[in-house]
Specification:
With 234 residues, the protein is of the alpha/beta class. The chain has a single domain, classed as Rossmann fold, CATH 3.40.50. 41% of the residues lie in helices and 15% in strands. It contains 6 helices and 7 strands, in the order E-H-E-H-E-H-E-H-E-H-E-H-E. The chain has a 7-stranded parallel beta sheet, sandwiched between helices. Helix 1 crosses helix 6, helix 3 packs parallel to helix 4 and helix 4 runs parallel beside helix 5. The protein is globular, with a radius of gyration of 17 Å. This is SDR family oxidoreductase. InterPro entries: NAD(P)-bd_dom_sf, Sc_DH/Rdtase_CS, SDR_fam. Keywords: Oxidoreductase.
Length: 234
């Protein structure tokens, strides 16, 4: 029986790299993003390059709880994924004391609440099955506060705490939970920054860290992975 992976925000950057890595190993794919055109392009590409895998895509804005549930229900109609990667996220620069009203709520809803609701949507079935691996895509910003990080940093600190809690709650049921704490990775979010590409990590390197953590024996779990550019943070 085919294994499957669910990756939120899977059309670009790290999410796409993770999907490509697991698809190359024959995993069926579940993913969502806001842009329908990007999703259609991804689905066509995956089905062409990896014959035989199943690909479910859905346009969804995971900052809205009802959209999280709609996506989860669509996935459940096919099956419960073996791997869940909470990757959806947004970065809006600014300081907590003077950022635009509403930034905090929007970032928390997108980066944190989406992962909370989606994990809960599949947790009981993973418990019943006694298997599963949940990854949370965190950030170095969840370890070290920095200027202009504002609400984004808060959301990633909270993500790390939530992931640790899920780890403690789910480990008796043989469900693995891993935090990926990534530094600056070359994705669209850095477009126009004027920083040489070679200064960043590659999204494929982050994907390899996820694949490696997934492939350990049942007796072992990687609780946290910190990956950052060789020359340090940007």
């Amino acid at each position: 029986m085919s294994k499957s992976i669910l990756v939120t925000g899977g059309t670009k950057g790290i999410g796409r790299a993770i999907i490509e890595r697991f698809a190359s190993e024959g995993f069926d794919i579940f993913t969502c993003a806001r842009n329908e055109k990007d999703l259609a392009s991804l689905k066509s590409h995956l089905e062409k390059e990896h014959a035989g895998i199943k690909v479910l895509t859905m346009a969804a804005d995971l900052s809205k709880k009802e959209e999280v549930f709609r996506f989860a229900d669509a996935v459940k109609a096919v099956g419960v994924p073996d791997v869940l990667v909470n990757n959806t996220g947004i970065f809006l620069p600014g300081s907590l004391y003077n950022e635009p009203d509403g930034n905090f709520e929007f970032i928390m809803e997108t980066n944190l609440y989406s992962a909370y609701h989606l994990t809960r949507a599949f947790a009981q079935q993973m418990i019943d099955r006694k298997s599963g691996h949940i990854f949370s895509m965190g950030s170095i910003a969840g370890l070290t506060a920095y200027p202009n990080g504002g609400s984004y940093a808060v959301s990633k600190w909270a993500m790390l705490g939530m992931t640790k809690s899920f780890r403690e709650e789910l480990k008796p049921y043989h469900i693995k939970v891993t935090s990926i704490l990534a530094g600056a990775t070359f994705t669209d979010s850095w477009a126009g920054a004027g920083i040489p590409e070679e200064r960043f990590m590659k999204s494929t390197d982050v994907a390899e860290s996820v694949w490696g953590a997934y492939n350990l024996s049942p007796q072992t779990v990687v609780e946290e992975i910190i990956v950052r550019p060789q020359l340090g943070d940007i």
